[in-house]
Write a structure and sequence with these properties.
By secondary structure, the chain is an alpha/beta fold. The chain is built from 13 helices and 13 strands. Helix content is 39%, strand content 15%. Helix 8 links the parallel strand 6 and strand 7.
Length: 365
Amino acid sequence: MNGPSRRRCLDLIKPYEPGKPVEEVERELGLSGVLKLASNENPLGPSPKALEALKKDLDRLHFYPDGNCYHLKRALAKEYGFSPEEMVIGNGTDELLSLLALAYINPGDEAVTVDPTFSEYTFALRLMGGVPRPVPLVGDDFSYDFAAIAAAVNERTRLVFICSPNNPTGTVVDREELAEFIASLPSGVLVVLDHAYIEYVAGSAHPDGFDYIRQGRPLIVLRTFSKIYGLAGLRVGYGLAPAEVIADLNRVREPFNVNTPAQIAAAAALEDEAHLARSLELVEKGRLQLAEGLKRMGLKAAPSGGNFLFVDVATDSRKLFEALLRRGVIVRSGDIFGFPTHIRVTCGTEEQNERFLQALQEVLR
């Protein structure tokens, strides 16, 4: 067509490949009762308190949403002890990643990531003409090599993305190693600590990104209501950072970016401690159940602090993905992460996990 020439960065952008929806698989393959363990969703569903709050407040949909997310910010302030001026709310954390790139990345600027990790970091960078500098994770447990990450930082570096637990590997960074790394960074570099799965981490060795903010470090912590809170369909995430960083992000944020039902449900879900505890218990049991089942098949999963496992199946993961699909089980094929013999599987209920293990065993035979 004789339209405008597209931006050169589009040639470097690979479209995001989401997990296949249940309805699409059932429609295409003529199946029913398809099990989706591909997108790290909460198998228990949304917080009951969130659902109840939505029922009471759906008569305001003819009004624009509160562009400042007043009530949600105050719920977060009560929970974590930060001021509303240190918070930004987004249409999922995906939007917050885009805001970071809009605010801080000029063409040719760089950001350090690890490999493999969440692809939306690179997407946001590329869209602004930025250059990602990926540093490989090391070993069978996909550990962060902070010496190599520090070596990748240079005068063009503006952002460093640290995902913990990391998607897709489940890697949790060490508290002391991260603290030393942050302290070593030159001025002008902002650390983006993505804690989308942090509620699933057991023990106390993992870092609490909020501590670094309280210490005045150049860091933003991203968290989400899509995972353990079960609100993925409403798309609401949030970032906590020093007030000057939040002010920069609000300059490039679209007005009314978080819809009213999302704000209502998120504020209510934050108070539902019982749902949070049930969701955590389910995942802790699920990780153990899946790891033991995989071990019986001679397979090993990387240590995971998330609600998923990254598994080397020692065969073509795309073919394995298709074979599982025909049995009504959706997982994530590792080739999209650059690991063609791996799959990523979400922890489901005990029955769902067992169904996946049985289907995997049939396919591997």
